[in-house]
Amino acid sequence: MLDDVISFLKENWLLAISTPIYIVLISLEVLFSTWQKRYYYSFKETLINLWLNIANYGLGLLVRTSVLLLLGFFFSHHVIALANDSWLYWVLLFLGVDLCFYLEHRCEHFSRILWAVHVTHHSSVEFNLTTGFRSSVFRPFVSFWFFIPLTILGFRPLDILLVDAICQIYGILVHTQYVRKMPSWFEWIFVSPSHHRVHHASNVLYLDRNMGMVLIIWDRLFGTYQEEVDQVKVVYGLTKNYEHPHHPIGIIFHEWRNLFRDLTQPGLSLKQRIQYLIEAPGWRHDELSSTAKQLRKREGLE
User: Fold this and answer.
1) CA 294 to CA 79: how far, in whole Å?
2) Residue 28 — pLDDT band, cuts 50, 70, 90?
3) Please, which residues bridge with residue 218 across strands?
4) Sequence-separated (6 or more) residues with CB below 8 Å from residue 145
5) Do residues 213 and 170 make contact, with C-beta atoms less than 8 angstroms apart?
6) What phi and psi values does residue 190 have, to the nearest 5 degrees?
7) What is the secondary structure of the chain as a DSSP string?
8) Hey, what's the torsion of the CAs at 142, 145, 151, 157, to 10 degrees?
9) What is the pLDDT of residues 129-168, one digit of tens each?
């Protein structure tokens, strides 16, 4: 297992390949959006996006060895012996990783404590390729729990993290307003920029929709799919945006602060305190705010 850890820490080829692609595409998007006076980018938003990515990457490096060791422990108890030298292994692993991400992502939108981890990714009122780098800083503490079933099924920890990293590259590239619609067959199977614009919207119709990273089929199967509607222009950001959106520390911890404030209200029962942790964002014992589901019901969308 130690050899696997050392091997993984030495593997930087994926970063070396993807970085030039990001630089070229982001530069083109900046140039064209400015030339066409669309202004998809602002300096402060772009800077905070890059800061959040650096913070996430640094934390990921710190905990990666522990993550590999934990996944390795569960892999040592796997119930199926799978050889990783066949195309079927990698296809099944890709499907498994993408499904695990969908489940993780869905939990992050429907559980307040996980939303506190994820909310930074949704806190920008802009939507461009650098928004894809606006990382949920504490995701390394969350994602590996969802990969444990894959290790028990016989998929190797290093292979899981490799496929996850490749899927993350795709997930970054769909953060663009320049691609309006992909061919219909593509839109039916894969997450497209149109799908992901919906996901980043604060419009009630679009809340908590299109959770997939590479495949949109999970959303279609599990009832979280929503098409981008021409009559409903996407409004990016949160339903209630953070008042200091460019504060490098506040942007990471603002929802944790709000959660702590709600948890420490006087007079709450133990059940209510637990509900503040596990219920969907917007849930309150006094009903002074609403969840996305409640908002949709109120507008006759469910």
Assistant:
1) 42
2) very high
3) none
4) none
5) yes
6) -105, 155
7) -HHHHHHHHH--HHHHHHHHHHHHHHHHHHHHHHHTT-----HHHHHHHHHHHHHHHHHHHHHHHHHHHHHHHHHTT-SS---TTSHHHHHHHHHHHHHHHHHHHHHHHH-HHHHHHHHHHH--S--SGGGGG---TTTHHHHHHHHHHHHHTT--HHHHHHHHHHHHHHHHHT--SS-----HHHHHHB--HHHHHHHTB-SGGGTT----SSBSHHHHHHT---PPPTTS---BS-SS--S-TT-TTHHHHHHHHHHHHHHT-TT--HHHHHHHHHSPTT--TT-SS--HHHHHHHTT--
8) 30
9) 999 999 899 999 999 999 999 999 999 999 999 999 999 9
215-245 pLDDT, tens digit each = 999 999 999 999 999 999 999 999 999 999 9
Can you tell me the distance from the alpha carbon of 121 to that of 131, in angstroms, rounded to the nearest whole number?
7
Placement of tokens 């091997």 in the chain? 7
Beta-carbon contacts of residue 44 (< 8 Å; ≥ 6 apart): 246
Sign of CA dihedral 201, 40, 136, 2: positive
Residue 202 token pair: 């604060």
* Distance from C-alpha of 30 to C-alpha of 43, rounded to nearest angstrom: 11
pLDDT at residue number 116: 97
